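User: I'm writing a short report section on ligand binding and want a predicted complex to refer to. Could you take this sequence and NAP and write out the structure as tokens? A short remark afterwards would be nice.
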Amino acid sequence: MRAAYIQQTGAPSVIQFGELPTPIPAAGEVLVKIGAAAVNPIDVYIRSGAITVPMQFPYIPGCDLAGTVVGLGPHASRFKVGDRVWGSNQSLAGRRGTLAEFAAVGEQWLYPTPSTQSDQEAAAGALVGITAHLGLHLHAGLKAGEVVFVNGGTGGVGSAVVQLAKAAGAKVIATVGSAAKQELCRNWGADLVVNYRDQNMDAQIQAFTKEHGGVHVWFETQREPTLDRTVGLMTPRGRLILMAGRTARPEFPVGPFYVKDLRLCGFAMFNASPAEQRECASGLNTLFEQGRWKPQIGKTFPLSEAATAHAFQEQNTLDKQGTLSGKIVLLP
Ligand SMILES: NC(=O)c1ccc[n+]([C@@H]2O[C@H](COP(=O)([O-])OP(=O)(O)OC[C@H]3O[C@@H](n4cnc5c(N)ncnc54)[C@H](OP(=O)(O)O)[C@@H]3O)[C@@H](O)[C@H]2O)c1
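Assistant: Sure. The structure tokens for the complex follow:
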């Protein structure tokens, strides 16, 4: 099969494209013919060597996939040949990645694709949709009528948080870096969209949340959280979600935090059990069928251009160029 792979960690240019053996599904695995894969910031950190995961070379990167079941390993019983499936969490913990024509995937990491959803959409929404669902529901315990704030409302995670929070009956505040992205976020139902370069941003958040005493759930997607400022904008008993910035060591305002009865939740989606992720996936599938969840595809590349796609992800997540809305999708 054709695949994008690396023989060593490093810059995007270490990604090669060529022939590798098609995997044979082991017990409990199914063989998926991949229709689309998506790129996530974690793929960039793993490829560059910034974070280490168990890796055997040639290593195929990629967490997210959507495609069609074409083979079953022994004891695989959740799916049959011909089923359309999507999933995430590949390329981690010794599992094979998804930047290939085929992947052998443990069936516990796969979910049925809604009949009206394309493989591109399903792959684009995989890791970020599960992340937003875990953060809002499992970790923050979001309730209808509460106010959710998310930085980067058209980013991979942010675009999912905006839509899932709206679907849960929340009022949503999102930040963006341009007028076009402001429009996009409003179309998904965000109630207040602020340009994060606007000097009046905090005054606008305070005015919008006045009747609630502040923000109930702050979903921080930035790698450099500003906790002093954030705590000041929260309502009592609010929850702060931290999920980015492995090397961040921000100052923490202990007094203002505890006198408001605030809670701080950190999480990484790949720590969630298959059962927890399945619950998110089934919620996402239902929302998609109800027209309340539309994964946002910002840019597609052929799989042969995986190196360029990784460079593009890096330019946006790390260098903050602002040239991406939503997800990068790769097509085998
Ligand atoms: N813990 C987990 O389980 C988990 C899961 C997924 C992702 N993550 C992490 O979460 C982070 C975000 O991931 P992603 O996929 O959403 O990345 P992404 O698609 O690159 O999105 C980044 C977002 O940040 C926004 N942004 C840039 N500068 C900003 C600023 N000064 N203030 C506010 N927003 C700003 C961008 O907005 P504009 O485009 O409008 O400039 C963009 O929407 C990454 O670090 C990733 O590793 C963690």
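A remark for your report: The first strand starts at residue 2 and ends at 5. Residues 274-289 form the longest helix (16 residues).
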